[in-house]
Amino acid sequence: MPLVAVIVGQGYVGLPLAQATVSAGIRTIGLDTRDDIVLRLNEGLSHVDDLDDSAIAAMVAGGYRASTDASVVAEADIVVICVPTPLSVLREPDLGAVRSATEAVAPHLKPGSLVVLESTTYPGTTEEVVRPILESAGHSVGQDVLLAYSPERIDPGNQQYTIRTTPKIVGGVDERSTAAAVDFYGRFIDRVVVARGTREAETAKLLENTYRHINIALVNEMARFCHELGVDIWDVISVAETKPFGFQAFRPGPGVGGHCIPIDPNYLSYEIRRRLGEPFRFIELAEEINRGMPAYVVERLRRGLESRGRSLSGAQILLLGVTYKPNISDQRESPALEVGLLLRAAGAEVSFHDPHVEAWRLNGDSVDRVADLDSAASRADAVVLLQAHHEYDVDQIAERSAYLLDTRGISTTAKAERL
Ligand SMILES: NC(=O)c1ccc[n+]([C@@H]2O[C@H](COP(=O)([O-])OP(=O)(O)OC[C@H]3O[C@@H](n4cnc5c(N)ncnc54)[C@H](O)[C@@H]3O)[C@@H](O)[C@H]2O)c1
User: Fold this and answer.
1) Distance of alpha carbon 375 from alpha carbon 169, whole angstroms
2) How far apart are CA 301 and CA 9, in angstroms?
């Protein structure tokens, strides 16, 4: 009998995981609360960047199906929970989806099944949030139901590292749970790494993302000071990164985006404050610096325009690239949003161009989408490169523009101003 897996949450994490399990010969059902997503998936249509329609059609041909009905869990040997873990309006962890997904699957779990939480979260969630829900549904965790945590490391758009080639951390609530998780992931991932327990596996993910958050904040702050000192930060980084050991290059930008860097470290700092009553100073400082970058970009733009005899108020500003990373369409937490809002608040007229985004809104108002980039760039008072999609020839755009502010440091012409 082939193994049966139910992957709960069919988004950026759950859907590629489902593709990997289907390819490994595991009968896979994708469970999601959104009817529209389930309907489209069953018709072979994708809604995430990393998988196109043909990949979903191949999954369906391989036996995959999507459902909104949690009773499909009754067939499952393995249930993997990949639901969102956002921040609330107060910027505190919101585990609502983890709780409701666990509550939905718990009554249907069959004896001997393995539940794995993959959602990024603070240390203790698997033991203190997921486990009690399973137990209150009558399961004896470690006996009839096994439980583990395994952080997802997917990097949307990354062509080099795939699910198979990215080592996977697992940590179970006990040895049997860990062994079952190692067996499951070992079927489609080259290297499975065992953490001491669920808390270590949960914290490893937060360390990885906090490390990025802090190092990005470091170069962002350095970029501001270097600019004042007349030092080219981009040149500094490119020569520093020739050191073959002890240094990893991070680059400044208009702020951090996506669902990891701006969110996950807050899960850690929140939990440290809640449990220990202390601030996680590094995280809070990095948060402050990175969240201040959109305002810094607008300030640089204001200064750049004034030095050209223009005021930001009334200026026509063309924003290039509104997604949070290059070459994908995902706009979640993109700093472009804050840049756009601040520009509008300053009285600028904002338009955008993005080959990956059809429609872009600021506080519900749709923003003019530019179709002809060359002529729009030559008409604008300023062009701001926010995202370095590979479609952009930034030097060429700078030649056509009255003023181009390059927040990604990829231009090489003196016509562009780098952050
Ligand atoms: N996207 C990434 O690059 C990435 C990388 C590593 C880790 N993560 C983490 O993985 C988790 C999932 O992120 P994502 O990017 O896949 O989110 P997503 O928003 O792309 O997908 C989540 C899916 O879960 C569904 N869902 C929500 N509540 C549900 C419920 N109660 N039951 C069933 N389905 C439900 C949603 O409809 C959606 O389709 C988060 O914890 C995130 O932090 C994401």
Assistant:
1) 50
2) 41
Residues 6 or more apart whose Cβ sits within 8 Å of residue 300: 227, 405, 417, 419
What angle (nearest 5°) sits at the alpha carbon of residue 118, between those of residues 163 and 189?
25
Find the distance separating the first CA and the last CA of the chain, reported in whole Å. 58
Q: What is the DSSP letter of 380?
A: S
260 is catalytic: yes
Model's pTM, two decimal places?
Answer: 0.92
Interval between CA 267 and ligand 1 midpoint (Å)? 16
Residue to mutate, 80, 207, 259, 266, ligand 1, most ligand atoms under 8 Å from C-beta = 259
Taking each helix axis from N to C end, the angle separating 293-307 and 198-229, rounded to the nearest 10 degrees, works out to: 20
The pair of three-digit structure tokens given for residue 114, joined into one six-digit string: 């393995």
Tokens standing for 69?
């009905």
Compute the distance between CA of residue 62 and CA of residue 182 in angstroms, rounded to an integer.
Answer: 24
Taken in order of first residue, the domains within the chain and their CATH numbers are 4-195 (3.40.50.720), 197-291 (3.40.50.720), 293-419 (3.40.50.720)
The neighbour count for residue 329, using CB atoms within 10 Å, is 15
How are strands ordered across the β-sheet holding 416-418? 368-369, 349-353, 316-320, 382-385, 404-406, 416-418
Residue 111 CA to residue 19 CA, distance in Å, equals 26
* Kind plus residue range of the DSSP H or E element containing 117: strand 113-117
| pLDDT tens-digit series, residues 348-402 | 999 999 999 999 999 999 999 999 999 999 999 999 999 999 999 999 999 999 9
Q: Give the residue, by CA position, lying nearest to ligand 1 atom 26.
A: 9
DSSP 294-361: HHHHHHHHHHHHHHTT--STT-EEEEE--SSSTTS---TT-HHHHHHHHHHHTT-EEEEE-TT-S--E
pLDDT digits (tens, 9 = 90+) for 231-249: 999 999 999 999 999 999 9
Question: Which tokens in the block code for residue 373?
Answer: 């980039």
How far apart, in whole angstroms, are the C-alpha atoms of residue 328 and residue 392? 14
